[in-house]
Amino acid sequence: MKKVINMINPSSIVAGVSLVELKKTEKALGAIFPDEYKELFLETNGAKIGDWTLFPIQTNETAPLSIDIVKQNQNRAKNLPEDMICIGEELSGEKLCYRIRKRFMQEQIYTWNDKTGLDKYASLSLSEFIDWQVPKVNTDKPSILGSFMVESEKLIVTDPYYKVDEDAELQIILSNVKNGSWTASVSYTPDEVVKNLFVYYGEKKPSGKWHICDKVGVDSSQAGVFDIEKFGIYESIQFEDGGVAPELQGRVVLGGAISMSGYGDGVYEVKVKYNISKKVVGVMVNFVNEE
Q1: Residue limits of the Knr4/Smi1-like domain (predicted)?
Q2: CA pair distance 43, 1, nearest whole angstrom
Q3: What percent of the chain has pLDDT above 90?
Q4: What confidence score (pLDDT) does residue 238 get?
Q5: Which end of the chain is more exposed for a tag (fewer CB within 10 A), N or C?
Q6: In this structure, are 84 and 111 located in the same domain?
């Protein structure tokens, strides 16, 4: 389910619902959700996937929603088959549906619209449907996140939720760094998990050998490399701020770059590259051990 969460637009992820709220919704709809739907909604109450939106569930913690899954099915189109439950819709109004069999919603996903009616099933499961809707990254080629400026001759490699020196053993501070414009990119494993975060001076990766530097600790499933003076301006640099493309799983911020940290929290190896003047011109955070 974590892979599915990573594919969802981060700005649409909210607090999940409780099992009690799921059961209450099932009772109102007269059918039981598939397990993967329940697992997803325990993590986030509704979501945006490309042009599709999954309807949220009304909870006791929120004000009455104008659109929720129960209301959508109470006010359903007259020609929608009775054995279908709408769980989401596309911008054009096309509906995403589960089919009911003996009070259980089946895992297959169907699409329906008012003009053409019910299409054959769109995918074998909700997770497969989400996977199809999200643009795929090229795992063989690093994706460029953008560029940022280094002006202090120092970089800090850290979990973006830490403060400078908050836990020095889990942070790395690099001195004698080449000032100027730096580029950030990420590479991926075959299952589209971030494998490496690269930052380097200029627009082209520097040649030469990577040198093992140290290890960085991660507690928020994110890691970044920042100009230390710009990082220190803020109590923390929030990964969620701004439009992070979920397919890239990273972005540049003022004076640095952030990415998801592979499969989650842990301690990860950091390597650096030097130019002929012994200045740091490249940093790599390795999130996946290939051994």
Answers
A1: 16-132
A2: 9
A3: 52
A4: 47
A5: C
A6: yes
User: Could you tell me whether strands 95-101 and 84-90 are parallel, antiparallel, or unpaired per DSSP bridges?
Assistant: antiparallel
d(CA 144, CA 129): 27
pLDDT over 80 (residue 71): yes
| CB neighbour list of residue 28: distance below 8 Å, 6 or more residues apart | 70
Nearest to 261 by CA among 202, 183, 189, 175: 189
Tokens representing 77? 């189109």
The Cα–Cα gap between 58 and 69 comes to: 8
Task: Indicate the residue type of 143.
Answer: S
In the structure, what pLDDT confidence band is assigned to residue 86 with cuts at 50, 70 and 90?
Answer: very high
Count CB atoms within 10 A of the CB of residue 282.
23
- Give the whole-angstrom CA distance, residue 94 versus residue 88: 9
Helix/strand number for the chain, H first, E second: 6, 18
Instruction: Check residue 163 and give left, alpha or beta (phi > 0: left; psi -120 to 50: alpha).
Output: beta
- Confidence class of residue 29 from pLDDT cuts 50, 70 and 90? very high
AA identity, residue 3: K
pLDDT digits (tens, 9 = 90+) for 179-229: 999 999 999 887 778 999 999 999 998 888 999 999 999 988 889 999 999
Residues spanned by the domain of 59: 2-133
Q: Are residues 240 and 111 in the same domain?
A: no
225-251 average pLDDT score: 65
Q: CATH code at 71?
A: 3.40.1580.10
Type of residue numbered 148: F
112, 84 Cβ separation under 8 angstroms = yes
User: ∠ CA(242), CA(248), CA(254), 5° rounding?
Assistant: 40
CB 154 within 8 A of CB 229: yes
